[in-house]
Description:
Strand content: 5-15%
Order of helices and strands: HHHHEEEHHHHHHHHEEEHHEEEEEEEHH
Bound molecules: glycyl-L-alpha-amino-epsilon-pimelyl-D-alanine
Distance between the termini: 20 Å
Number of strands: 13
Strand order of the largest sheet: 2-1-12-11-10-9-8-7
Amino acid sequence: MRLPFDRRLTLSAALLAVAATVVPATAAQAAANPFAAPSAQTAAAAAPKPDMDAVTQALKNTTAVGAPGAMVRITGSGAPLTSAVGVQDRTTGAAMDVNSRFRIGSVTKSFSSVVLLQLVDEGKISLDAPVNQYLPGLLPDDRITVRHLLTHRSGLSDYTNAMFDKTVPGFEAVRNKVFTYQELVALSLREPRTTEPGVSYQYSNTNFVVVGMLIEKATGHGVAKEYERRIIKPLKLKNTSYVHPSTEIKGAHLHGYLHPDEAGAPLVDSTEQTVSWAQSAGAMISNAADLNTFMSGLLGGKLLKPATLDAMLTMTPTDATNSRFYGLGLRRYDLSCGTSVYGHTGTVQGFYTYAFATRDGKRSLAAVANTSNKGAANTALGGTLEGAFCGKKTPAAGPAAAPAQRSFALLPALTAAPAEQDLPERGSR
Ligand code: REY
């Protein structure tokens, strides 16, 4: 797919215009890099005590719109703060337990990015090299680079849109299936590409399937081994695993419940599946404490060299609100209080996850609801971020009290917007 040259220019100019409206936290950052993350110092100074009443209310809002249960774990202000509502198993009636394991969906993309970026640190892969240099002939366009994959700018269409067009039949058709990476890429290549390489952000699982292939090619190992030796072991993550194609979640875990498309139809217990349709794009299992440790460790500089972490945190906007951004396998959300948080969201049948931390890694949040295909529940769960990172809302004291440089404090609150992967038209992610 080739766009006429002037059309490409128009698209690039539009993109730059959007990007240019991002307000950096300091003038120095503005000079250095207009897309750069606010400094660790800025984030630390801006972290008030979590408002656990507001966080618990967000969980209750999540169950009120159809999640059997929801829970959260927040670190960074003394002992970890937790809250849980509802049940983790509708059959036994067991209450939601904050220690339980669950499927983290696309939070897996941040793990895959870390492995890939460690390979960049080791000189084995170059971010701006064509993917086809490492995987000859895989992609139909030599201009697609490794960075395009990590930033969702390759234009490789997301094969999961067609796969899950009908939610429950789509899920049941792949629940026990085992795909090769090549088969998943082939599904994507049957569809037209969504953008010229590099031109625009188009969220696609295909990108992180190819990232998995790059990891295998560069290391000679499956991704499971690389997650293990590069992240799980060093950070001592006792509840995190990649067991593809096993369908089981070992140990105490949440049951996940998928909402059918038909209103009022019974929920489908979707706990057991291969997640082979996602693999390195979304098949990991973890728990809240491990996700806290992972995001805090990543942002705290335990996994990547500083320059590589900076590259991961160099973001461009993903929508017109200028409060949501994507870097290299990592999101940034700008909250209503002006604090930026970094992490990822995840959706896999039966599970919605949020895993985010401040720029210095000192405060982190992991939140999960054991349902999916219910956008209102995902949006409500995202409401935990405001209480966790912005603390108690103080009544507005008039324009004079507004912080001088914080023009993004006027942006719409995150709770007002649906989570990105849950927009009704999945194609518009
Ligand atoms: C796939 C559909 C979601 C899930 C997806 N997840 O791409 C990746 C991510 C790993 O971004 C399913 N929705 C649901 C439908 C809609 O089937 N018809 O909500 O469970 O996390």
